[in-house]
Amino acid sequence: MSEKRIEWNSNFAFMMAMIGSAVGLGNIWRFPNVLYSNGGGSFMIPYIVSLFLLGISFVLVEYAVGFRFKKSIGRILFSISKKLEPIAWFIVLIVFLITTYYVCVVGWDLIYVVLSFTKAWGANPDTFFASNVLQATDSISGIFQIVPIVLASVFAIWFMIWFIVKRDLNDGIGNVSKILLPTLCLMVVIIVVFSLTLPGASIGYTQIFTPDWNALTNLNVWLAAFGQIVFSLSLGMAIAMTYASYLPEKSRLIDSAVTVAFSNSAFEVFNSIGIFSILGFMALSTKIPFDQLVTEGTGLAFVVFPQVFNTMGPMGSIIGPLFFICILFAGITSAIALLEVVTYAISEKFNIERKRTVTVICIVGFLISTMFATGIGSTILGAFDAFLNNFALLLGILIECIIFGWIYDFNKLIETLNKDSRIKVGKTWKAVIKYILPICIAVLWIQGVYSTIT
Ligand code: PFF
After folding, report:
1. Among residues 225, 267, 325, 256, which one has the least CA distance to residue 59?
2. Is 10 helix (H, G, I), strand (E, B) or coil?
3. Ligand 1 binding pocket includes 22 (Cβ within 6 Å)
4. Which residue, among 349, 355, 399, has the nearest Cα to 72 in the 3D structure?
5. Are 39 and 211 in contact (CB under 8 A)?
6. Would the CB of 24 count as within 6 Å of ligand 1?
7. Ligand 1 mean position to 22 CA, how many Å?
8. Is residue 274 within 8 Å of 281, Cβ to Cβ?
9. Under a CB-based contact definition with an 8 Å cutoff, are residues 331 and 102 in contact?
10. Which of 413, 414, 419, 422 is nearest to 69 (CA)?
11. Where does this polypeptide localize (predicted)?
12. What gap in Å lies between CA 169 and CA 5, rounded to an integer?
């Protein structure tokens, strides 16, 4: 049975869900390292250029398409041309696989939320992570080494996102985003303010805001900025398309896309002040060189930060849980957006009720996450992460630029966006989508291949 068309019951719910989908693990543990390794303060220039020129431009395509068609990605591409439908399913498949991987990492974080109250990772968080969570093993038998706690936490996250997405849009995703996102922002403010009071904080934050102007002449720095915007805004995965399809008439699309993109970046820049101050404190207290501490991803969150909380004394048992809960909230609001894309596409295509669809997706998803959460899977997880960063997301963007920039009548999208918005778009936007974005992606790929072979 297909449900009656659903709509966001308030612009606030839509904005919270959109910002929540963008603010995720990438903002917290990816951005600081990218910023630091690409010129510190001067990185903000390519970053802001990428945000406005490429990021916002692309988000606008998804907004316009979702809003105009009011359908899921499968149906949208089908109505443009039947031949394009398989491409939609390819994107949905990638989004589904990303969800399985993303949930696995958020599951690991849930373990750390619990451990952080008592710092139960012990004196050596690196060995703890490798042997209890990652299950590093090079044998195929690793797949059978299932650690119950890891599985239970991955299951718990799948259960939570199932529980949210199976409900009605406003009741589930809308309400949860309205609660989790403001709480997340409040917690980040507390962490940043506290971190600035730590001895050594200035070792951290001055480093990121010290510009290296030479970096601006390096193409890789510009590409890194573009890559961060792509990841951080979750571009190319039909998330904005899906959420915008639930918008009521008379919505101000451009204004809201700009607000979402801007809030996402403000979040990551602000949060990085806290991360760097904390790492500065660590550098001062342990005499470990600062640049050795600025890692990214799981290494930063599950190894370096537990070490920091060990060093902090009793305050570590307060800031530690806050930090891991921030990652949890940021992860959940992104995971529900990913799951919604898949759910909407499948339930609309096969005319299956939302609840049933989401249940099946979550069961299959949990089984795949189980693989990531076991020994053999941890190797796949690394490879998948690289595939995602260097290929999958960019491919999604390229496909959408070609379909909507070249095959579909682009002027219809301009008309849709300009209708009720205060800011208007025109020829420059069209040129960005048709030429500049595809060229940037091609250059990124060539650079990726080049750096792998050299
Ligand atoms: N933008 C979110 C983040 O920065 O974590 C969500 C996300 C991005 C999910 C990229 C998945 C992904 F591949």
Report:
1. 256
2. coil
3. yes
4. 349
5. yes
6. yes
7. 7
8. no
9. yes
10. 413
11. Membrane
12. 11
Give the position, in ligand 1's atom list, of the atom nearest the Cα of 393. 13
Place of tokens 């930090």: 323
CATH class held by domain 11-453: mainly alpha
Task: For residues 289 and 272, give the distance between their C-alpha atoms in angstroms, rounded to a whole number.
Answer: 18
For the stretch 337-371, what's the b/e string if a residue is b when 16 or more beta carbons lie within 10 angstroms of its beta carbon?
Answer: bbbbbbbbbbbbbeebebeebbeebbeebbebbbb
Does the pTM surpass 0.90? The reply is: yes
Reported ipTM = 0.96
Q: Render pLDDT for 79-114 as a digit per residue (tens, 0 to 9).
A: 999 999 999 999 999 999 999 989 999 999 999 999
State if residue 232 touches ligand 1 by the CB under 6 angstroms criterion.
yes
Question: Which residues, in sequence order, are bridge partners of residue 40?
Answer: 211
Per-residue confidence (pLDDT) for residue 167, from 0 to 100: 96
Q: What is the domain partition of the chain in residue ranges?
A: 11-453
Cross-strand partners of 211: 40
Q: 260 CB less than 6 Å from ligand 1?
A: no
The pair phi, psi for residue 240, each rounded to 5°, is -65, -35
Calpha distance 216→220 (Å, rounded): 9
Best of 21, 93, 97, 102 for a ligand 1 pocket test (most atoms within 8 Å of beta carbon): 102
DSSP for 44-104 reads HHHHHHIIIIIIIHHHHHHHHHHHHH-S-HHHHHHHH-GGGHHHHHHHHHHHHHHHHHHHH
| Residues 307-342 pLDDT 10s | 999 999 899 999 999 999 999 999 999 999 999 999
- In tens, the pLDDT along 2-57 reads 456 789 999 999 999 999 999 999 999 999 999 999 999 999 999 999 999 899 99
pLDDT in tens, 116-132: 999 999 889 988 888 77
61 CB-contact burial (10 Å; exposed 0-12 / middle 13-18 / buried 19+): buried
Give the containing element (helix H, strand E) for 151. helix 148-165
What is the C-alpha separation between 56 and 61, in angstroms, rounded? 9
Contact at 8 Å (CB) between 372 and 380? yes
Tokens read off for 204: 């951290």
